[in-house]
Structure formats: C-alpha cells, structure tokens
Design goal:
The complex is a heterodimer of chains A (364) and B (410). The two termini of chain A are 38 Å apart. Chain A contains 13 helices and two strands; from the N terminus they run ααααααββααααααα. The model of chain A has no long low-confidence stretch (mean pLDDT 90). Chain A has helices spanning 2-28, 33-44, 47-71, 80-97, 102-131, 135-155, 194-211, 213-223, 225-230, 235-258, 275-285, 290-307, 318-363, and strands at 183-186, 189-192. In chain A, helix 1 (2-28) packs antiparallel against helix 13 (318-363), helix 2 crosses helix 12 and helix 4 (80-97) crosses helix 10. By secondary structure, chain A is mostly helical. Chain B has helices at 2-5, 9-30, 39-64, 72-116, 121-143, 175-184, 189-200, 205-211, 213-223, 225-235, 237-242, 247-273, 284-294, 299-317, 322-343, 347-366, 372-375, 378-390, and strands at residues 168-169, 203-204. With 410 residues, chain B is mainly alpha-helical. Chain B starts with a helix and ends in a 20-residue tail after the last helix. The chains are: A mainly alpha (364), B mainly alpha (410). At the A-B interface, helix 6, helix 11 and helix 13 of A face helix 5, helix 13, helix 17 and helix 18 of B.
Chain lengths: 364, 410
C-alpha cells in the first residue's frame, strides 16, 4: 500500500502540473480550459469512447513495451518506428497470401511480422557489437532505409504487393476472414481481441524481466554494466537478444494496426507512421514498468480520444498533443526529483539510526 | 598509412580532397555520368548540408559541455516555426532571428530538465521532440490558419510566404572561366572546375552567413577561456568544479547555444522553401547527430560528414546515370580498400572487401537507372557504412550524457 502511494503521488503531481500548464496555454490563447476539458471528457466518457481508447491503447502499449524492454538495459531502440512498419508490411502480405485454418492463420501472420521486426532490429545489435556503432544512430538510419525499402517493395512490379482491385487505398491485399483477430461486441462498441494479446505480452514482459535469470542479467547490465560483466554476463549476447525481442514486440505493435477491423486489414499509404515514437513517450511516462506503461498507454489513448471532441467547441485538438508532451516532460522531472528526495531521506534516516545506535553503545 | 598520418593537417586534407574528386571523376567516366562532379550537384549538396552541419554543431556544443542533445530535431522544428512567423512579418533577417529564438526556447526546456533538474538526457530530448510537434501545430492554428495575404493564406501545417535574401553570393571573376573549363569535359580538370564552382558560385546568402558559424564555433570552443570551461565540464565536471568552473551555468549556456544553432538550421529551411511547413525538418536533427559522431566531435570533420551525406542525397536528384555512378564509386572504394588490405597482409578483410566491391560494381553496371525509392536510402546506407568503419576510433567527451549534480566534487 505504502509502495503504491509512493508511485502514485508523483504521477498525480505530474498530471496536475501538466493540466495546469495546458490550461495556461488555453487561457493565453483565449479559450476557456473548462470548456475544453468538458468537451474532451464528454467524448471519452461513453461506451464507444472508452472501448476505442482501450483498442488504441493496446497497440500503444505493445509499441511502448518494445521500447521499455530495451531501456531496461539502457539500450534506446529508436528504430522501432521503422521496425513496426516493415514488419506490418510483411505480416500483411503473408497474411493475405496464405490459406490456413483460423487460429493457425493468425499465428503465422503474427509470427511473420515479429520475425521481420526482430531481424530489422538485430541489424542495430549486430552493428553495435561488431563495430560499436551507436544504436540510436543505427536506429535512425534504419528508419530511413525502412521507409525507402517499403516504398520500393510497394511499387515494384516483381513483388506485386499492391492490391489491383483497390487502387484508391494504395495498399496490400486485405487479410481474409480466417486471418483476422476476432472482435467482441459490447453493446454497440467493438472490443478487439488484440487487447488480450497486449495483456499477455505485458504479463510475459513482467515475468521475463522480474522473475527470470535473463531478466536479472538484463536489469543488472542496465544498472551497472561493468559489475554485470564481472559477474559473468556476456554484454554482446544480452544486446543481441534484447534488441531481437524488442523488434519482435515492435512487429506485434504494427500488426495491431493491420489486424484491427476498423482499418483496411492491409498495409497501405494511410498506415500511421509515428507509432514507434508514441511508444517512446509512453514507455518513459510509464517508467518502463509493465503496469506503469499500461496506465500511461491508456491515458495517452484517452487523451487522443478526448481531443477528437474539441472540434465541437472550436478549440484546436493540438492542445492534447501539448498536454501529452507536457505530461511526459513534467513527469520525468517530477519522478527524478522525487526519487532523489526519497533517496536523501533514506540516507538521512540511516544516518540518524546509526548515530542513535552509537550513542546507545557508548552509554552502555 | 603511418607516413600519411605524419603529414600536417592541411596536407592530409588536400590529399583526401584530391583523392575523393579523383575517385568521383573516374566513376563519372566509367558510368557516363558527368553530373557526378557537376557544379549543380555540388551546389545542391552544399545547400542540403547547411542545416545538417548546423544541427551537428548544436549537438557538438551541447555534448562537449556534457549534455547529449537528442532534442535537436524538436528544437529545429521550433526554429522553423519561429522563422516562419518572424520571416513572414519582418523578412529574411526576421526569419534568422525567429529561428534562433525558437531554437533557444527549445534549448531552455532541455537545459531546465537536464541541467537544473538533472534528469536523464535522452528522455528529456525525446520529450521535446514529441512536444514540439504539438507546440508548432497549436501555434499555427492560432497565428497562421486563415491569416496572411489573399491567395497566400496560412494553414495549420504551413505559414504564408516568407521572403528570402535577394541576391546570391559568388566569388568574383572565377565563375565564367570555371564554367568554361567544366564544359570542356577534360578528365579531372573539368571535374575540379565543377566542384570548385559548386562551392563558390551562386551560394545563397543564408548559407554563407550560417556556414561562417563553423569556424566561429571552432574558435569559441577551442580557443577561448569559455571554450575551455565548456570542454572541461564535458570531460570531468567534478574536477572542473573544484577549479572554480560553474559547471551548471556553463552547461546551461551551451545547451541554449545548441538550441539556437538547431533553430538557425530551421531558419535556413524556411528561407530555402520560402515558408514554414510542418515536418520540414525531416530527421535533419538526427542526421546532425550522426554527422557529429562521424566527425569525432570536431566541427571540420563534422561538416565533411554532412557534405558526404547531402552529396549522396543530391546525386539522387540528378536525372541521368549519376545515381548508378555513385553506387559504382562506393564499389570502387571497396575494391581500393581491398587492395590496401592485401598490401598490409590482412587477407581476410581484403577478400571480403573485394567480394563486396565487385558485387556493388556489377550491380551498378547492370542497372542503368536506380529505382527512385531505393536511391533515397543511399544517404542513410552510406552513413551507416561510414559509421561502421569509423566508430571504433571515436572518442566522445567523457562525461557526455551523465547528469551532473552540483557539489559532487565534494
């Protein structure tokens, strides 16, 4: 309980400060913050709004887990933005091309995307361990390369990825019924079963990082690399495995978009291009912890959903993006200050106790 | 190799520049692509390099003081907005000032988070990159959308037109003779004429002004007392503090300058496109970081890295056989390094380089034109290859990326 309070207090402070800042921006630009927040709340707090937030939050979560996993050992996988796109392209193409019974079809599609994501992110790891190239830079370059490789594959005649029957989408062929994830009807809204995959991934992430030897090594390498090395952890191997897992998670995030029934069940020109970067923000906001990241992903998606209601009151929806940015920025500051303060308190307490013990032993 | 390294810096630069032009002119002949060293390719490349160089300098100043600035992209974006707004109202000088202001504001955010509150530097930088998107769009919705002269209205994604500097800069008297020489198509001589002409004729005033910052920053960081304090804050902050350097305020100034440089890169983009457009930075902040690492945290080498990158980009814009020729040039480089490796008796790496080089050359011979989409990957691919070759010899500032808390010197 005490622990929970310790985590939630700084989060609440950050949230309050972020809203205060956004309100200030709104007031300065001549809008009433209360009108804005009421409109956002109204668009979110109904069945459809909540379910949409959960659906979108699920793919945000998966893409944030990809980042968080690598950050656990201080590797910043900024390349997830390219990984999820190229993985989604291959997942969509394979999913549309094969004919298999339902569960197997879905599994093959997902595994394809995850393998492609893992391969693409392994390039970062390979260049890092063999040539010590900074992973952030490799990630950025590979994002650029992924974009042009995708553009090439989509337009090339010999790959024939484009669906000739729907030229207006500029997309791959749609995945047939047997390859789609089922949808749960809740009233008029539809909850996507992808949410279940996201939850399973979250539990797997928790178990892997906090309950296995690998996870221990991972956190040890992130905390103190040289200490981990002297206790027998092979850093090169850790980077290779971690980045492959991270890339696989990114691939799964991309499939969250492909397989959601609201979109075109394919990869095309309208495919969202910033999921990886959103994931970075969410992972940092959730402090790389499985539960924290989940809360952050839901909050982020809820703000997105709320922002769509701002049009009705004539306030630019971009205030939600400012809110997200401010929240992230303020949250990391508050976390850091809070942590340093509680560390100082702990040291102080230990010092007083030692002093007290010493006086006791002297008087005895 | 050792004899080469024992030469003076100027001799080494001259030899390197000569070999690069030689290589390009051979590739140009081999693949029938005179545009490879044409003045138009070079001057496009020079232009494209300016914002990357500025971003790289921004990264350099911050990192030399101990702050890893991955927020350059966001600061540049804020710079483009500022340049769009002030440029629209007050002309080209306003655009330069507006970009500077926007970038400095972004720098202040980063300094507040990483220097004052000592939080994880990557995290703060990424937050700025994400937040800048919202800030720019929100400001556009207030100040650009539906405003401006008739027929030139701003929207949420772009500003009304911005005027740029009127004339262009040319070194007098040499343009015409160089052009004549370039058109003669003499081996090597015409190539040199094209390259020199690209650098010296019809360069935009914005580029000239901003490129002057390369030597200025070098002088500031390596030849002034402030520069010494800045570098010591980035190498051993605790020691610097014990000698009376105020590490925190030094880092604050450095990060503000870093933001300002990134913002000026934004000004350049606006002055070149004649208006602010959302997303016009297109990863140039990150490319600046790559150039900085390539350049081993030194301004001169950094500029060369940015030029290499933008050259391969500019070749992609040429219509003839230039794009296959530059791929051919990459192949030739591999073959030459294979010969060098064989000469120094490193037979395995010689074999690998030879196989890769011949493969690339064959690819270039077989494909008359390279697909438009794929050629866009070339600059990124080249940067990766260069980093893979160069990274092991890099030496970043020792304390870069580590937040410093006052009084650590004890």
């Amino acid at each position: 309980m005490n622990n929970l309070k310790k985590t939630l207090t700084p989060a609440a402070i950050a949230l309050a400060l972020a809203f205060a800042l956004a309100s200030l921006v709104l007031v300065v630009s001549g809008h009433n913050p209360l009108t804005a927040y009421r409109a956002m709340w109204k668009n979110f707090a109904n069945l459809d709004g909540v379910i949409t937030s959960i659906n979108i939050g699920a793919r945000y979560y998966v893409s944030a887990v990809a980042i968080a996993l690598a950050l656990k050992m201080n590797v910043f996988n900024i390349g997830t933005n390219g990984q999820y796109q190229i993985a989604a392209l291959f997942g969509a193409v394979v999913g549309a091309a094969i004919k298999l019974p339902a569960p197997l079809h879905v599994a093959v599609t997902l595994v394809t995307a995850m393998v492609v994501g893992a391969i693409w992110s392994s390039l970062i790891a390979i260049l890092n361990v063999t040539r010590s190239v900074n992973p952030v830079l490799t990630g950025i370059m590979l994002n650029g390369i992924a974009a042009s490789v995708i553009a090439y594959l989509m337009q090339s005649k010999w790959t024939n990825f484009r669906d000739p029957t729907r030229p207006e989408y500029g997309s791959t062929r749609p995945i047939p019924k047997s390859g789609q994830l089922p949808v749960f009807d809740i009233g008029k809204a539809q909850l996507q079963s992808y949410v279940v995959l996201a939850i399973i991934l979250g539990i797997g992430f928790y178990l892997l990082v906090y309950r296995t030897r690998f996870g221990y090594d991972l956190r040890a390498s992130g905390g103190n690399a040289s200490a981990a090395r002297s206790s027998g952890v092979n850093p090169k191997r850790m980077i290779l495995i971690t980045l492959a897992l991270s890339g696989a998670a990114a691939g799964l995030a991309g499939m969250g978009i492909v397989l959601s029934a609201n979109d075109q069940l394919s990869y095309g020109d309208r495919f969202p291009g910033l999921l990886g970067f959103t994931g970075i923000g969410i992972a940092l906001l959730g402090r790389n912890h499985p539960a924290g990241v989940a809360a952050a992903a839901l909050l982020w998606a809820a703000l997105d959903q709320g922002a769509r209601g701002l049009v009705t009151v004539g306030i630019p929806g971009e205030i939600a993006v400012i809110l997200q940015g401010a929240l992230l920025f303020i949250a990391v500051i508050v976390y850091a200050v809070w942590e340093r303060k509680s560390l100082a308190a702990m040291i102080h307490e230990a010092a007083t106790r030692t002093a007290a013990a010493r006086t006791e032993s002297v008087s005895a | 190799m050792n004899r080469f390294l024992s030469l003076s810096k100027w001799e080494r630069s001259a030899i390197s520049a000569f070999s690069v032009v030689l290589l390009l002119s051979i590739a140009g002949r081999l693949f029938d692509a005179p545009g490879l060293t044409g003045s138009s390719t070079i001057s496009t490349a020079l232009g494209l390099a300016v914002p990357v160089i500025l971003a790289g300098l921004g990264g350099l100043v911050a990192e030399r003081s101990g702050v890893f600035n991955i927020g350059l992209e966001g600061m540049m974006a804020m710079g483009t907005w500022g340049a769009g707004f002030f440029g629209w109202h007050y002309g080209p000088w306003g655009a330069l000032l507006g970009g500077l202001l926007g970038g400095v504001l972004g720098g202040a955010l980063l300094a507040l988070a990483t220097v004052t509150f000592a939080i994880e530097q990557t995290v703060a930088g990424v937050a700025i990159n994400i937040g800048s998107l919202g800030i720019c769009r929100y400001l556009s919705s207030l100040f650009f959308e539906g405003k401006g002269p008739e027929g030139d209205l701003g929207t949420i994604a772009d500003s009304p037109s911005v005027a740029t500097f009127g004339s262009k800069f040319s070194i007098p008297f040499i343009g015409d003779p160089l052009l004549e020489l370039e058109n003669k198509q003499w081996f090597l001589l015409s190539d040199f004429a094209g390259v020199i002409r690209g650098f010296t004729v019809d360069v935009s005033w914005a580029s000239v002004l901003l490129l002057l910052l390369v030597p200025t920053i070098w002088y500031l960081v390596w030849r002034t007392p402030f520069g010494l304090r800045l570098r010591s804050s980035g190498e051993k902050p605790a020691a610097a503090e014990s000698l009376g350097v105020n590490v925190l305020s030094t880092r604050w100034i450095a990060v503000l300058m870093s933001g300002g440089l990134a913002g000026l890169a934004g000004s350049w983009l606006v002055l070149e496109s004649l208006k602010y457009q959302q997303g016009m930075t297109s990863n140039r902040g990150y490319l600046g970081l790559a150039a900085m690492i390539f350049g081993n945290w030194m301004p001169g080498l950094l500029s060369i890295g940015a030029l290499l990158f933008s050259f391969s980009q500019s070749v992609g814009f040429q219509l003839g056989f230039e794009s296959r020729a530059i791929i051919g040039a990459v192949g030739l480089t591999f073959v030459i390094s294979a010969l060098w490796a064989a000469f120094t008796r490193k037979f395995i790496s010689a074999l690998i380089s030879l196989v890769v080089g011949i493969g690339v050359l064959v690819f270039a011979f077989l494909n008359e034109t390279i697909n438009d989409a794929l050629i866009k990957a070339l600059p990124y691919l080249l940067t990766l290859i260069v980093l893979a070759v160069a990274s092991k010899r890099q030496r970043p500032p020792a304390a870069a990326g580590i937040p410093y808390i006052k009084g650590r010197a004890g």
